[in-house]
């Protein structure tokens, strides 16, 4: 949840 | 990385190449909103400040560099090289109405109250509405060069493709990013009117013209 993706999208 | 995400990013790249191609071949930035382009520079700089402290991948790194560099280059083309072809009198959207709320919202709705995190959030909210000055301009003039509509279609496709990407990630990686998703849905929604005219007119070989 949240920024769990580490902001890996552009 | 999944196929939707990759196609989305490629569509984003394509939109930028189309825009630069349009400006250089017609030697004009007529029909392009300087304000929207300036907002994109703001978006990219605010979001990709993480180039300095977060490593994700080579792909990610080069894409970020490209988006910052190309958006600054487009501003240069509009502001200096083809300046006389830009008509500020039809590019009159008040960007304060977009930047202001994006700042406020990012201070309220964020994942972490940290400077760079708020910048990231701000960039997400601002990107969601950054196309409005461009769409407003289109609405005002009521027509657009075909190449300009291809630019907008590619840009809209990029946003639309991020949606199946999130659905896919939800199921495969259990990743949900509500800020990006909500802002992304709003952003994609803004293109719906445009897409309608694009599919029913431009792709049928007609000129992009809005009903009077």
What does this structure look like?
The complex is a heterodimer of chains A (10) and B (212). Chain A has 10 residues and is low in regular secondary structure. Helices cover 0% and strands 0% of the residues of chain A. The radius of gyration of chain A is 6 Å and the shape is elongated. Chain B is mostly helical and 212 residues long. Chain B has one domain (3-86, 94-207). Chain B is built from nine helices and two strands. Chain B has helices spanning 3-26, 34-47, 58-81, 96-108, 115-129, 132-141, 146-172, 178-190, 192-200, and strands spanning 143-144, 208-209. In chain B, α1 runs antiparallel to α7 (146-172), α2 packs antiparallel against α5 and α5 (115-129) runs parallel beside α8 (178-190). Chain B is globular. Chain A binds chain B through residues 1-10, and chain B through 5, 9, 12, 47, 50, 54, 56-57, 60, 63-64, 67, 111-112, 117, 120, 162, 165, 169, 173, 175-178, 180.
Q: How do the helices and strands line up, and which of them pair or pack?
A:
The complex is a heterodimer of chains A (10) and B (212).
Chain A: no helix or strand
Chain B: H1 3-26, H2 34-47, H3 58-81, H4 96-108, H5 115-129, H6 132-141, E1 143-144, H7 146-172, H8 178-190, H9 192-200, E2 208-209
Antiparallel strand pairs in B: 1-2
Keywords (chain B): Endoplasmic reticulum, ER-Golgi transport, Membrane, Protein transport, Receptor, Transmembrane, Transmembrane helix, Transport
Pfam families (chain B): ER_lumen_recept (PF00810)
GO molecular function, one term (chain B): ER retention sequence binding
């Amino acid at each position: 949840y949240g920024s769990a993706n580490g902001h890996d999208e552009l | 990385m999944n196929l939707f995400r990759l196609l989305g990013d490629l569509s984003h790249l394509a939109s930028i190449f189309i825009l630069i191609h349009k400006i250089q071949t017609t030697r004009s930035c007529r029909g392009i909103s300087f304000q929207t382009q300036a907002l994109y520079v703001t978006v990219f700089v605010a979001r990709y400040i993480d180039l300095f402290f977060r490593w994700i991948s080579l792909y990610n790194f080069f894409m970020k560099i490209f988006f910052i560099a190309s958006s600054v280059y487009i501003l240069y083309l509009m502001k200096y090289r083809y300046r006389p072809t830009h008509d500020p009198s039809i590019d009159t959207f008040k960007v304060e109405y977009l930047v202001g709320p994006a700042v406020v919202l990012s201070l309220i709705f964020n994942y972490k109250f940290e400077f760079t995190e708020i910048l990231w959030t701000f960039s997400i909210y601002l990107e969601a509405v950054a196309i409005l000055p461009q769409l407003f301009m289109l609405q005002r003039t009521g027509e657009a060069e075909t190449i300009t509509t291809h630019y907008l279609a590619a840009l809209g496709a990029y946003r639309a493709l991020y949606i199946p990407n999130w659905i896919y990630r939800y199921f495969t990686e259990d990743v949900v990013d509500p800020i990006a998703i909500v802002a992304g849905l709003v952003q994609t929604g803004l293109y719906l009117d445009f897409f309608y005219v694009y599919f029913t007119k431009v792709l049928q070989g007609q000129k992009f013209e809005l009903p009077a």
